[in-house]
Amino acid sequence: MTENVDFDAIVIGGGIMGTCSAYHLAKLGSKTLMLEQFEYGHKNGSSHGASRTTRIVHTSPMYLKLAQASYNEWNELSQSSKTKILEPSGLLWLDDEKNTRQRHEFLSKHSIEHELLHGPSIGERFQHLNYNNEWYAIYDPKAGILLADKCQEAAQKQFVKNGGTAHFSEKVLNITP
């Protein structure tokens, strides 16, 4: 006999997007079920692997807000799970003068920490690089590497810790509203 259980929310897919969605729903107090068609820790989707890059430098106000919010969320997840999930590395963004100056103006307007570099000053800052005066760059000191597998594991553990229910190897065959 199957027991009927009611949930406030059911998240289909236990990759990083589904897991983080389920985690936040549970953290907000929703009784949440997450269903994943593959076994725990599988390598079938795009959420596995060692790393993903992340950066603050964007030229769209929407992406800038999302990037800033994501850093806050990754830091919160890192603290709550006691897991290091972000390796700061910085990022050097090379482009032509026009695009680089536009990016610099946008970032300055939004008080985003960055460095504007031009030609030989790129090599002065990064001694292994050698660029002439045709080159321009923005350095994003907050950029880094997300440790993807650790992010996934930390989010799944925090989801369960916050009262979520995870079912692995459970494929959704039909949805009836």
From TrEMBL:
Any matching Pfam family: DAO
UniProt KW Oxidoreductase keyword: yes
GO biological process: L-lysine catabolic process to acetyl-CoA via L-pipecolate
MF terms (GO), sorted A to Z: flavin adenine dinucleotide binding; L-pipecolate oxidase activity; sarcosine oxidase activity
Assigned GO CC terms: peroxisome
Cofactor: FAD
Keywords (A to Z) from UniProt: FAD, Flavoprotein, Oxidoreductase
Domain FAD dependent oxidoreductase: from-to ranges: 8-175
InterPro entries, sorted: FAD-dep_OxRdtase, FAD/NAD-bd_sf, MTOX
Family label: Belongs to the MSOX/MTOX family.
Protein name per its UniProtKB record: Sarcosine oxidasee (formaldehyde-forming)
